[in-house]
Amino acid sequence: MDKITISEIYKYAGKEVKLGAWLANKRSSGKIAFLQLRDGTGFIQGVVVKSEVKEEIFQLAKSITQESSLYVTGQVTEDERSPLGYELQVTGIEVIHQAVDYPITPKEHGTEFLMDHRHLWLRSRRQHSVMKIRNEIIRATYEFFNQNGFTKVDPPILTGSAPEGTTELFHTKYFDEDAFLSQSGQLYMEAAAMALGKVFSFGPTFRAEKSKTRRHLIEFWMIEPEMAFYDFEDNLKVQEEYVSHIVQSVLDNCPIELKTLGRDTDKLAKIKAPFPRISYDDAIKLLHEKGFDDITWGDDFGAPHETSIAESFDKPVFITHYPKSLKPFYMQPAEDRDDVVLCADLIAPEGYGEIIGGSQRVHDYDMLKEQIEKHNLPAEAYKWYLELRQYGSVPHSGFGLGLERTVAWISGVEHVRETIPFPRLLNRLYP
């Protein structure tokens, strides 16, 4: 008898198989017991008919407790009512470990309780679906960049400099020096692009931002490509093609998970390049038309502003050419206007806010040196970054995509705390 996983059950229709699984839930109607089984690869219903199994097997099926671990044997049968398309006609059950008083029952639980039990909450069908979608986005990310000639480079997590200032960084001592947990690998990726042409990184980043919104985490993961000889327009094209690719990959490969989450896939099906664009200037005008009279040119956009702008489009929208005063020192000014920079934020539909920030980088040595001095950044810490402009500098561009916000948008969950296995929030370091 073959020992298989639920994800490959479709290969075994009509055959007897053995599963290692946990009991997610169960119900009984007297002469039939229905076991909701999960094994990490998926969920399937096991049906135990009293008249078709030994009495001890049926009694065991009725007495097994939630989240007990089992070996289950049975015949795979097709069932159109099942999201999987199959169920298991159980013939045997072997208990590996009997769980006692599992704390997360099928009743309603508060968020704080579930977060305190995050190590167990991950087992639920909903959380399983979100994690599978996250995994598909990661898989599709590697696929996209590998297919398009990018090289994966891993920037350091401990750094002596900060791309966007040190006010929101976690400080630590690095022996007898000051160091910070990285808020972005961008500066290092620029160095890598000068060596390898087109590069991308994927890793954890940290922001010591005291925010409690549904869009913020203290520790989150970023995908950060950087490209030599790419200007602002080239950069936007890569972004929209990349986002289109990951959305379509989730649609193709996670239909069960999207259905479990109740996601409106018609909205996702529209996410194909090219994406609409609106300049910061025009975005201000649009917000005034929508009744945001308090915002003026030079103000940054908050969540309500981004949501209102996104409501005018059914795809992600680029907001381009922000005021220079709002953006970091390394962004290239526009050729025709010194007060705005060649940057864009990509705003997701449905109120999920910014998922990408990107720009063309300053490649002129004197201009970058002036910006570093203007922002009072330590010259010694940025010496190596300036040297990139001394030895064969070229126009180059890049961006950063926040994985958790993207997972939240594509899966349709409200809060980013559900999109990372163990979220780090302002008041949460456990578990």
From TrEMBL:
Subcellular location: Cytoplasm
Signal sequence extent: none
Record-listed E.C. numbers: 6.1.1.22
InterPro entries assigned: Aa-tRNA-synt_II, aa-tRNA-synth_II, aa-tRNA-synth_II/BPL/LPL, Asn-tRNA-ligase, Asp/Asn-tRNA-synth_IIb, NA-bd_OB-fold, NA-bd_OB_tRNA
Keyword presence, rRNA-binding: no
Catalytic activity: tRNA(Asn) + L-asparagine + ATP = L-asparaginyl-tRNA(Asn) + AMP + diphosphate + H(+)
Superkingdom field: Bacteria
Similarity comment: family membership: Belongs to the class-II aminoacyl-tRNA synthetase family.
Protein name: Asparagine--tRNA ligase
Species in which this protein is naturally found: Mesobacillus zeae
Source organism phylogeny: Bacteria, Bacillati, Bacillota, Bacilli, Bacillales
